[in-house]
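Below is one such protein, fold included:
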Amino acid sequence: MPLSGLQTNWLQEAYFPSLAESWPGTGLNGLEGQVGDALLTAPAIFHFDTQECRVLLSDPGGREPLELAEHGYDICFPMTAIPLGALRRVCAGWRQDRSYRAVGVLPFLVPQSIRILKAFTEQLLQLFLTNRIYAFWPAEELWYKPFSAWTRNDWRNRENYSLLWSVAEGNVWVARGVQPLESMPAAGTLVDIAAAEE
């Protein structure tokens, strides 16, 4: 994992279980609320709507960032603590409990975990309240560039990936570029778990 990936993961972990109890080095421990209530403005940048020291749930309908919502994405790496789209609407636990995110990103980071997770399909469906998690993994060079400033070439970057975990089927598909949810898994390649284990 690149250094910037470790930094963003460290920050997400420092924010839990709540901003008020977060590690003082983040400078956010004066706020009450959850990092998952923020609005994602770039893959690794977010914005809080606040009322005095209380963080408000920004965009409860999961319509922002518009470019990602239009394609049906549920999370965007590296800032996976902030759910998007349908996941933001239906799974409040993702914003409130670190174990949701830990399990929800595992198939994308460690494909071999699918073998174990398949045994818990019913529990996972009840946990996430959705039968799939659709992730956008942008090129690392774009992590700190606001989505509003992305050019057509940024969206077409060959290092952008779309990843779909079908929780119900226990499969993960990967495709280059930005893909509408409807085009997955047809546009993607099914992850070969046996090959990943070698």
Remarks:
- The CA atoms of residues 87 and 130 lie 7 Å apart.
